[in-house]
C-alpha cells in the first residue's frame, strides 16, 4: 500500500504529472529527424536514422539489406478462399478506358450528379454537427424512412427499430447477410450471370455455391432445373431483380414458383433489389410481399442507383427479427456504423414525392432508347432489358473469340468501354458471347459513344 507521506513519492509526483511541451520535446530529441525547419513546423516524421547504432547492430542481417538492391519479388499473399479472385473487371476496364481515352459505358455509375435537395440535406446535417458515429443499425430517421418506403412499395409494415439495418451500401448489406446467416458448408443457389461480389462473399463464408444459368434471349428462370437443384440441403437462394447484368425482371409467376420451393424445403431468400425504381416495362415485385415469404426473406437495397449518389454507400437490409439478428451481428464487425450525415440525407431522399420516381424512369427510358437504337444500328444482337440501367448484347457478329478480347478491342480501337460478362458466371464459358453496356450516362455521352461505334464498327446487313 502506498502512503502519501513517502518523501520519494512526493519528489516524483510533480514530474509525473507535468507533460513535456512540444518545444521541450524538440530540444530533448535533437538526434531525431522531426521534419522541422526554420519558419516551418510539420508533424514529426520518425525516420529510420533515429534508430541508434546499437539498435542497428542488433538487427538481423536481412533487415539491413538496401531495399534498392535487385531481388526477386515476394509472392502475393492471400487467403485460399479469395485466391481465385483477381482485380475486379470494373477496375481493369476503367483503367484501360483512362489509358485510351475511351467513353466508359462499362461500370454502372452515373456521370451526372444526384438531386440538389438530397445534397443540401447532407450539407445541412454536417453543419448541424451530425458527424459522429451513428447508431450501429442506423439513425432512427433513416430506419423510419426505409420502413415507410417499403410499406409504400410492398404493402408490408415493418418495425424500423427491429427489422431495418442500415449498412455501407448494398454490397455490405449482402456481405452482412451472408456472413451473418450462412455457415461453412451451407448450400446457396445463385442465378448466373450475377453481381461479382456474390461469389466472393459466399466464398468468404465457406458456402457451397450452386448456379442456375439464365439464358438469352429472355433470361427466364428454368423452373424445372431450379426444382432439381433446391433440396433439403439448400440454405438460401440469392437473387437479384431487376437483374444485373441482364436487365431481366423476375415475373410474379417465377417468384411464386421460387416461393413454393422455399416453403417446401425451408429455404431462405436474399433478394437484392437495388434497381427496383428502374423498372420500365413491368412492375417490380418484392418476393417478401408474397404469402408466407416475409418470414424467410432478407430484402437488400440502397440509395445510390435511385438517386445517382453511388459514392455515398448507403444501403439497408429489411428482415424479420430472427434474421435481422444475424445480419446485425455481422454488420457490427464489418463496418459497425455508416456515414452519419449521409444517413440523414438519405432519409430526406426516401421521402421524395412519387413524381421524382416517375421522372427518373422517363429520363432513363430516353437514355435507354438512345443506346439500344445505336447498338442495333451498329449490328449487335440486343437482348430485352426490362429494368436496371444495363443492356446485354451478343458481340459475336464482330468475329472476336470471346467477350474479353472483344471488350479490349472496343476500348483500344473504337474508344468505348463495355464489360465482359464471363466474369459473372461460375463457368466463364457460358458468358463468352455476351457483353454489358450501361446507359447511366448523360445523353450527349451516349450519343458520342454510338457515333464512335457507327464510324468504326457498322456492319452492313
Automatic annotation (TrEMBL):
<dbReference type="InterPro" id="IPR015421">
    <property type="entry name" value="PyrdxlP-dep_Trfase_major"/>
</dbReference>
<dbReference type="InterPro" id="IPR015422">
    <property type="entry name" value="PyrdxlP-dep_Trfase_small"/>
</dbReference>
<feature type="domain" description="Aminotransferase class I/classII large">
    <location>
        <begin position="103"/>
        <end position="451"/>
    </location>
</feature>
<feature type="compositionally biased region" description="Low complexity">
    <location>
        <begin position="50"/>
        <end position="69"/>
    </location>
</feature>
<feature type="region of interest" description="Disordered">
    <location>
        <begin position="50"/>
        <end position="72"/>
    </location>
</feature>
<keyword id="KW-0808">Transferase</keyword>
<dbReference type="InterPro" id="IPR051326">
    <property type="entry name" value="Kynurenine-oxoglutarate_AT"/>
</dbReference>
<dbReference type="GO" id="GO:0008483">
    <property type="term" value="F:transaminase activity"/>
</dbReference>
<dbReference type="Pfam" id="PF00155">
    <property type="entry name" value="Aminotran_1_2"/>
</dbReference>
<protein>
    <submittedName>
        <fullName>N-succinyldiaminopimelate aminotransferase DapC</fullName>
    </submittedName>
</protein>
<dbReference type="InterPro" id="IPR015424">
    <property type="entry name" value="PyrdxlP-dep_Trfase"/>
</dbReference>
<dbReference type="InterPro" id="IPR004839">
    <property type="entry name" value="Aminotransferase_I/II_large"/>
</dbReference>
<keyword id="KW-0032">Aminotransferase</keyword>
<keyword id="KW-0663">Pyridoxal phosphate</keyword>
Amino acid at each position: 500500500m502506498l502512503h502519501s507521506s513517502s518523501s520519494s513519492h512526493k519528489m516524483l509526483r510533480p514530474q509525473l504529472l507535468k507533460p513535456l511541451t512540444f518545444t521541450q520535446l524538440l530540444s530533448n530529441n535533437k538526434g531525431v529527424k522531426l521534419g522541422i525547419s526554420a519558419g516551418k513546423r510539420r508533424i514529426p516524421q520518425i525516420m529510420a536514422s533515429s534508430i541508434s547504432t546499437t539498435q542497428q547492430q542488433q538487427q538481423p542481417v536481412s533487415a539491413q539489406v538496401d531495399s534498392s538492391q535487385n531481388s526477386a519479388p515476394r509472392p502475393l499473399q492471400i487467403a485460399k478462399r479469395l485466391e481465385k479472385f483477381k482485380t475486379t473487371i470494373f477496375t481493369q476496364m476503367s483503367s484501360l478506358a483512362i489509358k485510351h481515352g475511351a467513353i466508359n459505358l462499362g461500370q454502372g455509375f452515373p456521370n451526372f450528379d444526384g438531386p440538389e435537395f438530397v445534397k443540401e440535406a447532407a450539407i445541412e446535417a454536417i453543419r448541424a454537427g451530425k458527424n459522429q458515429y451513428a447508431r450501429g443499425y442506423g439513425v432512427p430517421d433513416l430506419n423510419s424512412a426505409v420502413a415507410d418506403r417499403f410499406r409504400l412499395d410492398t404493402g408490408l409494415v415493418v418495425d424500423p427499430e427491429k427489422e431495418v439495418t442500415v449498412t455501407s451500401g448494398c454490397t455490405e448489406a449482402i456481405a452482412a447477410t451472408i456472413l451473418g446467416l450462412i455457415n461453412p458448408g451451407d448450400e446457396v443457389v445463385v442465378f448466373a450471370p450475377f453481381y461479382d461480389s456474390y461469389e466472393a462473399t459466399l466464398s468468404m463464408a465457406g458456402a457451397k455455391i450452386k448456379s442456375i444459368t439464365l439464358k438469352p434471349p429472355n433470361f427466364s428462370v428454368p423452373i424445372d432445373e431450379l426444382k432439381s437443384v433446391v433440396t433439403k440441403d439448400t440454405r438460401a437462394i440469392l437473387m437479384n431483380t431487376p437483374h444485373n447484368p441482364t436487365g431481366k425482371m423476375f415475373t410474379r409467376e417465377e417468384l411464386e414458383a421460387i416461393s413454393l420451393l422455399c416453403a417446401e424445403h425451408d429455404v431462405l431468400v436474399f433478394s437484392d433489389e437495388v434497381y427496383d425504381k428502374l423498372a420500365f416495362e413491368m412492375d417490380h415485385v418484392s418476393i417478401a410481399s408474397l404469402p408466407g415469404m416475409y418470414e424467410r426473406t432478407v430484402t437488400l437495397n440502397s440509395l445510390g442507383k435511385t438517386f445517382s449518389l453511388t459514392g455515398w454507400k448507403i444501403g439497408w437490409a429489411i428482415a424479420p427479427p430472427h434474421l435481422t439478428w444475424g445480419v446485425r451481428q455481422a454488420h457490427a464487425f464489418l463496418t459497425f456504423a455508416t456515414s452519419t450525415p449521409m444517413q440523414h440525407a438519405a432519409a430526406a431522399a426516401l421521402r421524395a414525392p412519387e413524381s421524382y420516381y416517375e421522372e427518373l424512369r422517363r429520363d432513363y427510358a430516353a437514355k435507354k432508347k438512345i443506346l439500344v437504337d445505336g447498338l442495333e444500328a451498329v449490328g449487335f444482337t440486343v437482348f430485352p432489358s426490362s429494368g436496371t440501367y444495363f443492356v446485354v448484347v451478343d458481340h459475336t457478329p464482330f468475329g472476336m473469340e470471346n467477350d474479353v478480347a472483344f471488350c479490349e478491342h472496343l476500348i483500344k480501337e473504337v474508344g468505348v468501354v463495355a464489360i465482359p460478362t464471363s466474369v459473372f458466371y461460375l463457368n466463364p464459358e457460358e458468358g463468352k458471347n455476351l457483353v454489358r453496356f450501361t446507359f447511366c450516362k448523360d445523353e450527349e455521352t451516349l450519343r458520342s459513344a454510338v457515333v464512335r461505334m457507327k464510324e468504326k464498327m457498322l456492319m452492313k446487313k
